[in-house]
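Follow-up to my earlier ticket, as requested here are the two runs.
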Amino acid sequence: MFNIGIDLGGTNIKVGVVNEKYEIVSNAVVKTNLPRPAEEIADGICEAVDIALKNAGIGMDDVNTVGIGTPGSADRKTGKVLYSNNLGFRNTPLGQMLKDRLGKDIYVENDANAAAFGEYLAGGGKGYENVVVITLGTGVGGGVIIDGKIYTGFNFCGAELGHTVIEYNGRSCTCGRKGCFEAYSSATALITATKKAMEGNRDSKLWDIAGGIDKVDGKTAFDGMRAGDKTAVGVVNEYIEYLGCGLTNMVNIFQPQILLIGGGICKEGENLTKPLREIIARDSYCIDEALLPKLDICRLGNDAGIIGAAFLFRMH
């Protein structure tokens, strides 16, 4: 038997048919085409499911369950998306909509939680029971696995890790608070810091490396650092210190066996993880270095959400 995992995003709906070895045997992608009503989004999801099934050469009779990771807060008991600003959902019975269309049990979870569960099952967290995943993208997302279970809090809003404060009354965050982890450690924050540093130093090599301030991305500062540019070194060092601060908070709160970070910035590998490990070892509350949580990089990339969603039935 197979399970279907769905990663519902603001731009694309990604569907995968997943076997019992956590392998995606076929997939499909269709546009989310926002804004549009929830009923039409559900139709789009089913369209992608049909394509993925045909690509796998199977039918719904070969499918055990269907799981979906969605932006926002999702009630796993009722299958409702309680709130998702990007999708325009509020108390939307997405699980029931899909069950009516597909005739299978549907399991609904926050997308970051589903991705963290995927990493726990088959990625960097495989073999561990207590895992924290931090994703560094447009924002800072997170997922927490405690004793093999996704942690959501009593109201399904838990693990909004990017909105813990690392600098009181600091930079403004999109959530309305100031000083959030996300405002300092997202890829967006790194790009903003790089641009600001460039504007303050017109002689920096970053101008040539980026090819213009509008072309700055999350890699620009690291490229400048490798080129020996002092401005770039300053940007990278500050970014890593802030990221290390936020990650140390995660260690002190959860003390996971392993802390995984994901996102495009993680392609920097040891340039990123080596100094982060040093900061965590220096600053975290740990009575024995041998008991310090490990820091590593997510392994599954964009497949994590699909694989995690496919096995959400195990949370019930």
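Run two:
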Amino acid sequence: MTRSQIRDLAGVALYRHEAIGAVLQVRGEGADARLCVLTAVRASEPFAGVAALPSGPVEPGEPLEESVLRHLAVKVDVAGLAHLEQLGTRSDPSRDPAQRTIGTSYLGLVAADVEPALPSNAAWVEVDAVPEMAFDHRSVVEHAVGRLRAKLSYTNIGFALMPEEFTIAELRSVYVAALGHDVAATNLQRVLTRRGQLVSTGEMSRPGAKGGRPARVFRFADRELVVTDPFAVLRPE
């Protein structure tokens, strides 16, 4: 139960507003690549000792996006964020047992080749193995994953998950991890090329430790969000 709501002199209810960041990154290589979310164990009540997403109150005069970046900066180098977008607003009166709190959530993406330093209470957790979390943060993670997977079908948002340059094999492993299902490398290259997302650099990759033939190197044509196939989600299987 929350305490009686504080009101101003005109009788209008005053609510706490917080910003919540769900930061996703594909970690690992090849078949070991997994889509992960940044979590941190809370040090104080409510939910002390329980994993949560980076979050905190929006200060007076502070825009929402500045607020979420401020709270994320405590857990991760925000300079490593390749993309940030608002997910939605949460208003369940019981979402915070301490007081009525409105929450606005954000999706953040970090490229696979970035390794930001984390504080001791923070960790990357596979999205398929997220434990019970504080407040409604587990459902925020589910919302963030759903948003990412949907946008992979009709935008170039994959740019935010990838290094500046990559091979098709590297691109496929990231897409498979992000989508949660297999996808053929040839189909992926054909679709993204047809949509104007991929550009060949003209370079070839260096052979890996296990040898193998060099592969063509690509990059995304744009490194900011672009809708490339607005009707993709309406097409039949």
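The only thing I checked on run two: The beta strands are 16-27, 34-41, 51-52, 55-57, 81-90, 101-110, 122-126, 198-204, 216-220. Let me know what else you need.
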